[in-house]
Amino acid sequence: MIDPIDIHVGTRVRQERHRAGMTQADLAAKIGLSFQQLQKYETGHNRISASKLSQIAEVLKQHPGVFFPQPNSAETTAPENPTEAKILTTYRALPTPIRDAFRRMMLAMHSAPTS
Fold first, then answer.
1. I need a surface site. Which of 31, 61, 82, 115 has the fewest CB within 10 A?
2. Domain 4-111 carries which CATH code?
3. Which residues have C-beta within 8 Å of that of residue 68, sequence separation ≥ 6?
4. Ramachandran region of residue 98, left (φ > 0), alpha (ψ -120 to 50) or beta?
5. Which DSSP string do the residues of 81-97 spell out, in sequence order?
């Protein structure tokens, strides 16, 4: 099972990479990885070592702590079962525009009156 912290760290790497205007291939080349390995990091399927996270932070001009969840954040809540973990992993792996549209749809469904 994928640890929620690994998912969060990978998601934050992807967000900061996007913010920096870099592709997976760009960042991967700067830290000595294949883009496929970076993709596995960003989805949480592979854990990022401390040294590699430090390299990523340096390239993205961020403090390494920016990649970790903040205490008392909803993002630190662990999935309750394997299905929930898979849904969360899949959601976080979506491209940002699709993830944003999906989130809006889910929030609209949640607030819709039930009959």
1. 115
2. 1.10.260.40
3. 5, 8, 9, 12
4. alpha
5. SHHHHHHHHHHHHS-HH
Q: Which two tokens stand for residue 83?
A: 């299905």
Give the chain's radius of gyration (CA, Å).
Answer: 15
Measured between alpha carbons, how far apart are the two ends of the chain, in Å?
A: 37
pLDDT in tens, 24-39: 999 999 999 999 999 9
DSSP conformational letter for 45: S
Q: pTM score, two decimals?
A: 0.64
CA 75/CA 4 separation, integer angstroms: 8
Size (the chain), residues: 115
- Quickly tell me which residue has 């609209």 as its tokens: 108
Residues 6+ apart with CB under 8 A from 10: 41, 42, 43, 44, 48, 92
- Name the nearest CA neighbour of 7 among 49, 68, 50, 57: 68
Tell me, what's the pLDDT at 111? 78
